[in-house]
Design goal:
This protein has 123 residues and is an all-alpha fold. Helix content is 65%, strand content 0%. The N and C termini lie far apart (83 Å).
């Protein structure tokens, strides 16, 4: 494998975009961790806010930063949306693996009547 020289960017717009994007993603990560540690509907003792509300705020902030980054860096919104659709399909398939089977409604009285009708002891 050929080695390449890494030269950090000095482009101010790129630095702003990446800095804000990383900042917001880290804030979202912090709140997601709080939801795991404390529970999504619990109050964060440091902020006094409900974790669910903090979570949707941070998700909205990340979406805003992503939208602005895609637009300013001309990253191809259509291609990104197509990839998101594929990924959502994968995630839905993955989540389906964890779904609990739905309870089956059983009519025990009907089952007893049917059983009595075929069981030799009930003739």
């Amino acid at each position: 494998m050929k080695m390449t020289k890494w030269v950090p960017t000095t482009n101010l717009m790129m630095l702003r975009r990446m800095g804000k994007l990383i900042e917001e993603m880290n804030e979202l990560g912090t709140v997601a961790a709080r939801c795991i540690i404390q529970g999504i509907d619990e109050v964060d003792p440091s902020s006094g806010e409900v974790n669910r509300e903090r979570l949707w705020h941070e998700i909205a902030d990340v979406y805003a930063q992503l939208d602005e980054t895609v637009a300013r860096l001309a990253l191809g919104a259509e291609a990104i949306e197509a990839r998101r659709a594929v990924k959502r399909g994968y995630m839905q398939e993955w989540e389906a693996m964890f779904e609990e089977p739905k309870p089956v409604s059983v009519d025990f009285e009907k089952q007893r009547e049917e059983y009595e009708g075929i069981h030799p002891c009930y003739d």
